[in-house]
Design goal:
two-stranded parallel sheet; single chain; 8 strands; alpha/beta
Length: 169
């Protein structure tokens, strides 16, 4: 079995990226026979001491869009085999869009978003806030096509159920 993790970046100091690193290390510790791979656009020093060298890191190298590597995830899944033996694990709602055409088992970890307070100027200029809200809201509909959506907290699970009407386990 192979598990491929898709995320815009894999960098030190980013919360989701650190979570990915911890998750992959734990999976490898539990079962080192699982073939693990990270596909991302940018990597910057996340591979700390103790990160298993058996976990493949593939850096595609697409540039950030509007300052976000997560907006440029569409090319990341091209190299993933389109079969039932590979699980694709996305860590950003935008990463689920290119997964629609894949036969693979697909899961996503929901780390939350700021849609509920999207109109707060602290989240950037209006055009960024409205475009991000629309993309993320549309992505939650695509999330219904996934085999599994995992949340990192009960609060976020309730957000998916109550706000987005998504009840995946």
């Amino acid at each position: 079995m192979k598990v491929v993790t898709i995320n815009g970046s894999f960098m030190r100091g980013h919360g989701v990226d650190t979570s990915i690193s911890m998750l992959l290390k734990k999976i490898h510790e539990i079962n080192p026979e699982i073939d693990l791979e990270v596909i991302c656009n940018n990597e910057n020093g996340l591979v700390e001491d103790g990160f298993p060298s058996e976990i493949t890191r593939r850096i595609i190298g697409h540039d950030a869009i509007l300052g976000y590597y997560s907006l440029n995830v569409f090319g990341l899944v091209n190299g993933v085999n389109n079969d039932n033996g590979t699980i694709i694990h996305a860590h950003h709602p935008l990463a689920v869009w290119p997964l629609i055409v894949k036969k693979n088992k697909k899961i996503m970890t929901w780390h939350g978003n700021n849609n509920l307070c999207w109109n707060d100027p602290g989240f950037g200029p209006f055009y960024k806030r409205i475009s991000r809200r629309l993309l993320l809201d549309a992505s939650t509909h695509v999330m219904r096509t996934l085999d599994r959506v995992v949340t990192i907290s009960d609060y976020l699970r309730n957000e998916l159920i109550n706000y987005y009407m998504l009840n995946k386990r």
